[in-house]
Every structure is written in structure tokens, then in C-alpha cells.
Amino acid sequence: MTRRLSDIERFRIRDTRTGESWLGHNQEWYRTPWQRLSGCGPTTASNIFRYLAPALPPDAARAARPGRTDALAFMEDVWETVTPTRCGIDTTQRFHTTAMAYAAAQGWPLDSRVCDIPPEQQQRPPRSTVYAFLDGALAQDLPVAFLNLCNGDEANLDEWHWVTIITLTRDDSGQTLLADVLDGGTVKRIDIGKWYATTTRGGGFVTLGTGTNHADVISFRGRCSRMQHPPAVKECREQSMRKGLRIRRLAVYGTLVAACTAAWGLPLQGRYGIDAAVARANIARAAAAAQAAGQPGAAVVPFVVPAMSGTKRLPDTFPADGTAFGPLRWVAARGEFEPASVVLLTGRDLPAVEVRAGDLVGPGGARIPAAAIDIKVVKVWYQGGSAWHGYFADALGRTLVPELLLHDEDLVRVDTRTRDNYVRYESDTGARRFAWMSAPFEVSDYTFANQGNQGLIADAPTLQPFALVPGEAKQLLATLRVPREAAPGLYEGTLELRQAGGAALATLPMQLRVLPFELPTPRTVRHLDREFYLCLYGTASRNPAILRNLADHNARHPMGFPYVEPMNPAGLAADVALAKETGIATRPIFAGAQGVGVTLYGREAETPAGQRKITALRDAIAKTRELALKHLGHTDIYSYGVDEGGPDTIRAERQAWHAVHEAGGKVMVTSFPHRQLLFDLDYLIIPGMPAPHRSGEVARFKEANPDALTGWYANPHSGPENPDYFRRLHGMMAYKAGYDVSANYCWWRNNWNDMAVPYEPNLRAIIMVYGARDGVIDTLAWEGVREGLDDVRYTTLLRQRATALLDNSRGAAAASMARRALAFLAYWDERREDINAYRAECIRLILDLETTTGGTR
């Protein structure tokens, strides 16, 4: 008996140019290598939508257009929702959920049915049930999507592959069950009965239709262990290879299968599936901590922890350094941003938890509104294997790391079974989907194809409800902006955790100590009249939200903004206005004018061509200087020379540097400290982190160039997520080594996918923030950098106050205390000692000096 679809010609697709035709879509039409290798799932979905189009609303006609160009366009559209993961579309659940999601987005009223074939023979449905499923679908004129994870003894199939069943033939005995399938634009005949009896990995069948019952899912115990048998994968691969199947696709799929575990649809929001024993231990320890804090039986236990700690806080990490039920404390100067942090643990499954901060009430009833407290979830996701510690790529390793600071935790989902990240895309119409954001180079083909579409990525403006899972720790970061007009003193309030729309879960007291001063602009260690700058690569922007973010993080000197272009004076005027609006400084300007990377080798400077280059450069800098004086009132502008030039390049730049100085300009370059070669240079950016052996080079360069600036970058570039490390590195380590600028590379570029960075494949995503539609997504490392600059500001204030007392004008006792403060600053070890204790001691000494000189606290 044979059952077939009523109109197989409905699958016909033609190339109008060549006359070639196919039955069904062909995944080899896809444009990228990864699509062609993994695109069998969306190709099969395209076949099914094509056949069903006449029964769907009129707009579905695009699914059935006869030309190959239109057919490929439809396949690409389907791919955007029926998107393969690192394992492809490897389950019937992923196929039917993504295909149904696509149909729902089009407004097509479809239902689905599923019949799974588990890998274990004893758990499979009877052969008669499988036949009834397939026969019933074809009887209703519905094509069937067929997933084969291992061929068994059926040689006419590709392993780990989807095809479309269009006919079914069973002999009278019921032992032979043949099917015609669409694969690669042609029809193949396979023996379903033989496959059913011999496959070692199973697979399954899916139908979509307008009249089927979506709830009718034939599923059997054991399904969820499908990806937990790597030996079976190896056996099946070897068996298939012996049969001479298509080796190219098999090799790639085999590699991907061996590297991943099951991916049953998109991962759930905020769930990491930690070890059950660890979860139980965390719950028990949290309950004991609640008991000790006088809160027995608390539904949620909050632990206040150091905000910028070097501890990598993962979902299975118990906050041993935390204080149960707080209080949550800040100590900050007027106008300062200051973070605090809390880790939450519960023994209950709480899918939607809200956090509500109250106003802070201080001296005389003064209030700081709750809106001054910005609370975000510290999102843990997968990064390259050297994450938290380094910035070099690790192609074989993926590790969970806390990094992103999100109002909406669901912006990023994590699949711990495949060690993958998914980022939510949202269009202007509100349509949402999750994009695979951890694809390896085999997928992206060393291109930007698997980096983020930043125009579709947007965090919520305020904290959204988030999930708490039994035994899994979740960290929140609460950043407080102290109003400049706030009265000094102690402020108190409460932070409440509630079920969304329901009962209270926990209450956490909050305390803020507002200090009786504002912090100054950071100054250098050698000169209190010279500013210490944070000027990072990748910060040039004209987005007001980005510029405000930079200013709020003490990065008031973006590299390349404002830009002085003599041919565009209106552009400079607009830049200056935008800088004033957003808190960006306009003096000095780094790399904000024409580059001066003119090199003249040997006697080239004496030739007419060489002289023309120098004259043009001198004239351009003179015009830049004239425009800057008009709009900025100064000419403190550094033009960028040749990047990372060696000794020969520096010699070849000498004429250009001289011409720039003749025209009233300044020159900045990156280079190793080539000793006597680097005279007549205004700003040297030295490769390598601030370290004791480099501080000597900094001192010698400054001795040779007294008015010049020195900065540092690289080793490490940005990349390590550890906020304590980046706080020290960009703050006190650079400051005490004698640098004028922390100029690391780089703050931002499009590196959402840490697993495949096309700029430099040997490196991870060397960034501090992630680009989004309306600005950037902050990270722990970026908050650490802000705290590092604030450390320098506290140090600057202490040095200012202490230095003013050294002349004994306020008495010997005050001078003695000032010397004690300066000794503390000089001998404190910025690389090893507790930096939070350092900040606290700076505050104590500042207040003591103020009291000693007759001030008040």
C-alpha cells in the first residue's frame, strides 16, 4: 500500500535563466559555508511551508513562488527563526518550536505533531505507531519532516540530517516500510523500517498543518538523554564513513556533535542547571546564615558582597565573603558614582522576582530618591577559555564568567549543555528572536557574520523581574549616584525583594555615608597641576548616550572627539556643543585632528615630492590650529603619527614632527621607548601594562621631554572581566608608575561573539562594553575602571590637602600628619594590597587632615 501527497509538483522550483529544476529546496543554495553545512532544518521547514501555502493566508504565497531566486529568499527568511545552533537543528523539539514560531510571526494558523524515536530500542514506540503517524499525516496531505541522527543500516541517508517525506509504501506483511524523501532538490528512496530497527541515535518526525492537534505529541522516556552518549556518536560516525557517505558534512557535524550536549529549544531565562549536590549545599548554608542573622525561614537570603571583587561569582559559587541581610552600604563623595553588590540565594523556584529600592533619608529629613540607585543583574555567560584572566583566544575552551550588567536578564540566554550564548534581537515592530552569539570560526568563516546586529540589541531602561532558581546564586550590582547638592551625613533606606505582583520575599537595609567633599579631577603622581587622563581607543562617538556614559566613568577625553577639521567648521561647532551637553572635556583633544603619519626615508625629505608632503602637512596643521583657537580657545591638540613604529619609522617621521611643531601642533604616537630617538615628541603611548620595570622608562622619557605625556596600552588589552584587576591597572598602577594617561586598547568594537573575533583571531573580544541600539551595555570591568579613576581622585585630594600643610603654616602637628599621609601613599602596594582598605584609609586621612586644620567632618 502506498500513501503519497496529492500534488508533489507543488515542490517544483525552476531556474528561469538555466532552465534547471528541482523538487524541493536545496540547502546547497545558501550563501555561507555554515548555512550550507547546517541548513537542512530550515530547508526542510521551507519545503513544508511551501507545500502548505495554498491552505494558508494569501501572504503565504511567497513561500510557493516557482523561481529559485524567490525560493532562496524564502529560505533565508526561514533561517532567521529556524536557526541552527552549534549542533544544527538536532532535536524534533527545536524544529517544531522554531518552525511554529516562524509561522506565528507570519500569522499562519498552524499546529504541530511530533513522534520521537529515542536512541534506546526498548523506549521506542512500536513500529505500528510510527507507521500510523506517517500514514496519518500523508493521508491528511501533510509532508513530514524527518530527523535522522544516525543511519544505522540505511545507506541512502545523510547522518545528522533533516529530509522531507512525501510518500510511504508498506508491504502486506508490514515489515518493509519505504519512503520517498526530498533531499538536495531531488527525490530519494529510503527504508524507514530498516532505519528504525538499526539506528543507534534515533531521531524523529514532525508534521505541521492547519487541522492537526498541537498537543498530540508522541514522546517517550529517555528522550532527554539523547546527547549523552559520545561513544555511540563515534560508532555511528565510523559506521557511516565505512558506508562512504558524504564525508564533508559528516566530518563537520561529527566535530560539532562531539563538542556539545543536547539543546532542547532555547535555554530558559536565568537557569544554569548547577550540580544538584552543590545546589543543596548552597541552600543549607544560606538557611544557616539566615538563622544566624535572625531571619529563620527567609524565602530569599541576600548576601552583601564587595562590589569590585576579584572573586569570579558563578551560579554555583556560595558568597562566603558576604554578610547575610546586609546592610547594603555605600560611602561616597558628593557627585560620585559608587557601586554596591548583593548575591541572592533561595531554596524556592521563583520565576519572577522584583527589586524595589526606597528613598534614602538622611540628616534633617534630607532625601535621595530611589531613582538615584541603578540596579542591574550581573549576567553570567560563556566566554573564551582564558576569560577573567587573559585576552588571548582559547579555541578549545569555553568558560562561564560574570560580565554583563543588564536591566533585563533575558536579553542574553545561556545554554549550559552546549556552552552557547543567545542574544535577543528585537525589531522596530516588536518582533523578537534569539540569535546564536557564540558560533565558532567554522560557522562565521572568519567574517563578521556571527557578531552582533547592534541595531537589534536593546536592554530595558530599568530593572525587570528576574528568575531565582533553588541553590543558584545571582548577583546584583546597585550603583548609586550621589547628588552634588546632597548634605553630608548618614542616609538610610530599604531594598525590598518581592514576587512579581505578589508577596514580599526579603528586606535588605541600605546605608549611605555622604562625605563632606567633592572629588577633584585626577592629577598625576608627580605634578598636582597636571591632569591624569583616561583616554581609551574606541571611544570616539557622537551618540549622546555613549558620551554621557564615558563622562560618568571618568573618561572625559574620548580619543578622536571632538574632531577639528578645517574643511568642516560647522562640524566642530556641533561637536563642542555636544561635548558641553554630555560632560565631555574639550581640552586637550587626543587624535582629534588630521593624522601626521608622514614618513620620509633617506634623502626623500630633500626631494620636491618630499617637500610637498611636508608643506601640505604644515599648512593643514596651521589651519587646524586656527580653527581650534576660534571654537575651542586653545591649540592643545595631539595629532596621531605612525602607529607602533620602530626605530627606522621614527627616524622617517622626524621631518613631519618638526613641521607639526612649526605650525603650532603636537604629536602623539605609540612606540616602544627607543631612548634618544624619541626627543621632540609630545605624547608617547608605550606598549605594555604599568609595571615597575616600565616606570623607569617613563621617568627617563619625561626627563628628556619634560612637558610630554606618557600613556600605556596592551599586555593586557581589554578583555579580562575581573573588575578588581582593571580597577588597579587603569587607576593606581598607572598612576604610581608615573603615567599621565591610561590609553588602553580598546573600549568598544563589535565583539559580541567572543568565540570568533575576525579582527585578530588570536585574541578574544578586547572590549570593555558591548554595543547596543541606544548606547552600550556596561560590564563589571568597565565599572572597575571607573572605580580605578576614583581611587586616583581620592589620592589626588589627599595629596592636595597634605601638600598644603607641609610648610608648618597650620602647625607642626598638622605637618606631621601630612607627612604621614604622604608616606602612606608612597609605600602602599597598588598591586597586592586590599584596594578597598586603601580607599577607606584615604577617606580617613582626608577627614583627619580637615579636622586637624579646623574643618569639620
CATH class of the domain at 9-258: Alpha Beta
The share of residues in helices is 25-40%
Query: What is the CATH topology of the domain at 9-258?
Result: Cathepsin B, Chain A
Secondary structure: number of strands: 35
Computed CA radius of gyration, to the nearest angstrom: 32 Å
Q: Regions with pLDDT < 50 over 5+ consecutive residues?
A: 212-266
The major pleated sheet works out as: 8 strands, mixed
Structural class: alpha+beta
Give the amount of beta strand, in percent: 15-25%
Reported CATH architecture of the domain at 9-258? Alpha-Beta Complex
How many individual helices?
Answer: 19
Compute the average pLDDT.
89
Secondary structure topology:
Elements: E1 2-4, E2 12-14, E3 21-23, H1 33-38, H2 40-52, H3 68-79, H4 92-106, E4 111-117, H5 127-139, E5 144-148, E6 161-170, E7 177-183, E8 186-191, H6 192-198, E9 203-209, E10 217-218, H7 230-242, H8 247-258, H9 276-292, E11 300-305, E12 323-324, E13 328-334, E14 337-346, E15 350-357, E16 360-361, E17 367-368, E18 373-384, E19 398-406, E20 412-415, E21 420-426, E22 432-436, H10 441-444, E23 466-468, E24 474-481, E25 489-499, E26 504-518, E27 533-534, H11 544-552, H12 569-582, E28 589-590, H13 608-631, E29 637-640, H14 647-662, E30 666-670, E31 683-687, H15 692-704, E32 709-713, H16 723-736, E33 741-742, E34 770-771, E35 776-777, H17 780-803, H18 812-827, H19 835-852
Parallel strand pairs: 4-10, 13-26, 27-33, 28-29, 29-30, 30-31, 31-32, 32-33
Antiparallel strand pairs: 1-6, 2-3, 4-9, 5-6, 5-9, 6-7, 7-8, 11-12, 11-14, 14-24, 15-23, 15-25, 16-17, 18-19, 18-24, 20-21, 21-22, 25-26, 34-35
Helix pairs in contact: 2-3, 7-8, 11-12, 13-14, 16-17, 17-18, 17-19, 18-19
